[in-house]
Specification:
Blueprint lengths: L2 E5 L12 E3 L6 E6 L5 E6 L5 H22 L6 E9 L9 E6 L3 E8 L4 H6 L2 H7 L11 H18 L5 H17 L8 H6 L1 H4 L2 H22 L6 H12 L6 H12 L3 H10 L8 H5 L3 E4 L2 E4 L4 H7 L8
Parallel strand pairs: 4-5, 5-7
Antiparallel strand pairs: 1-6, 2-3, 3-4, 6-7, 8-9
Helix pairs in contact: 1-3, 3-4, 4-5, 4-8, 5-8, 8-11, 9-10, 10-11
This protein binds zinc ion.
Keywords: Signal
Protein name: Peptidase M61 catalytic domain-containing protein
Pfam families: Peptidase_M61
C-alpha cells in the first residue's frame, strides 16, 4: 500500500560507497548508492531530461541523500528511492511539485522543470524539506503540523551541516519562517489542532507549519540544555528510528516514544503547550537562549559566550 504526503510547492563521508549505472531497458538513468550501514538508495532520473542534465540532477540527488545522513548517520529505511520526473514551468521555480510516498520502499518523487540549472536546484529548499520527512516513521493522517514542522526545521539544519548554507543563513531562514507563521494571524484564537484540521479547506499553512517547527526547535534546545549538549533531537530521532522506523504510528504514539527514548517528558510537555496554543508561539525567547537577537528583519549572532557556543552546536549532530 502506498501512502502519500504532498507538497506544492563538516563532512563525514558516508555515501558513494558504491554507485553504479544500471542499463535499463527504458534508458532511465538509475544509480544505486549505499550508506555506511549498507542501506540502499535507488536514484532514477527520467530519460526525458537531456543527458548532461541527468548527470547534474543525479549529483543533486546524491547531495540530498548525503545531507540526510547528517542527522543520525544513516538513512531512515533499509531501502528508499528518489525519482525525478520532468515538469513544465519557470526555471525560477525548479521543483514545482514533490511528494513522499510511504510503502515497503519509501519514495521521494520530484517534478523538475526541464530547463533547470544545477545552481538553481542546489539553492532550492524543497529537496531538503522532502527528504527530512523520512526522519519520522509514517504517522498516518492528520496532525500535519508535526511532520511539516519537523521537515521545515531540519531542511535548514541539514543544509548548514552539509556546508551548503552558512550558520547565519540557517538562523535567518528559520527566523523568516517563524515570522511567516506569526504573521498568519487569520485563525488566532483557535487552537493549532483546529487550524490544522481545516487547513486544506481554509488555509493557515504558515501557522501550522511554523508552529510545528517551533515545537522541534524548542524540544531540541531543551534536550541539549539538559544534557550539556550531549543529547538532542538527533538522538531522539535515531532512537525512534531504531524502535519504530518500520511502523505506522500516530503523533501521540511518536511523542510517547520520543519521551521514552530521551527518558524525559520534553516532547509531551511541549505537545500539551502547543496543541492548545491559540496563536503562533514566539521564537524570540528561544533565539535569545542561543545568542541570537533580531535587528529589523535580520538575525544578529553573538560571537562569544555560552549561548553562542550552544548555538554553534546545532551545526553538528548530537548523534554522530
Ligand atoms: Zn512537507
Amino acid at each position: 500500500m502506498t501512502r502519500r504526503t504532498r507538497h506544492l510547492s563538516g563532512r563525514r563521508c558516508l555515501l558513494a560507497i558504491a554507485c553504479c549505472l544500471l542499463a535499463m531497458a527504458t534508458a532511465r538513468a538509475e544509480h544505486v548508492l549505499y550508506d555506511a550501514d549498507g542501506r540502499r538508495l535507488e536514484v532514477s532520473v527520467s530519460p526525458r531530461f537531456p543527458v548532461d542534465s541527468r548527470q547534474q540532477i543525479t549529483h543533486w540527488a546524491e547531495q540530498l541523500a548525503h545531507s540526510l545522513t547528517l542527522v543520525y548517520g544513516h538513512w531512515p529505511r533499509q531501502r528508499w528511492a528518489i525519482e525525478v520526473e520532468t515538469a513544465s514551468g519557470s526555471a525560477d521555480d525548479p521543483i514545482p511539485w514533490a511528494q513522499v510516498s510511504r510503502g515497503d520502499t519509501d519514495r521521494v518523487s520530484f517534478y523538475v522543470v526541464t530547463n533547470t540549472h544545477t545552481d538553481a536546484l542546489a539553492r532550492e529548499w524543497t529537496g531538503y524539506h522532502e527528504v527530512s520527512h523520512l526522519l519520522l516513521p509514517y504517522r498516518g493522517w492528520g496532525d500535519t503540523w508535526f511532520s511539516e514542522g519537523l521537515a521545515s526545521y531540519y531542511q535548514n539544519l541539514i543544509q548548514a551541516r552539509a556546508g551548503l548554507i552558512t550558520e547565519q543563513d540557517m538562523w535567518q531562514r528559520l527566523h523568516a519562517g517563524f515570522v511567516r507563521g506569526r504573521d498568519d494571524t487569520r485563525f488566532d484564537g483557535l487552537s493549532l489542532i483546529s487550524v490544522n484540521r481545516q487547513m486544506r479547506r481554509n488555509g493557515g499553512y504558515m501557522r501550522v507549519y511554523w508552529s510545528g517547527a517551533w515545537y522541534f526547535l524548542a524540544a531540541d534546545l531543551r534536550l541539549r540544555q539538559r544534557s550539556g549538549g550531549s543529547y538532542g533531537l538527533d538522538n531522539a530521532l535515531r532512537d525512534l528510528n531504531d524502535c519504530c522506523g518500520e511502523d505506522a504510528l500516530s503523533v501521540p504514539e511518536i511523542i510517547h516514544q520520543l519521551d521514552a527514548a530521551s527518558k524525559q517528558s520534553v516532547f509531551s510537555e511541549l505537545y500539551t503547550q502547543l496543541r492548545n496554543a491559540t496563536q503562533m508561539p514566539d521564537h524570540v525567547p528561544l533565539f535569545a537562549e542561543l545568542g541570537i537577537t533580531i535587528a529589523g528583519d535580520d538575525v544578529v549572532l553573538s560571537d562569544s559566550g555560552a549561548a553562542a557556543q550552544r548555538r554553534r552546536q546545532f551545526l553538528q549532530s548530537t548523534a554522530l
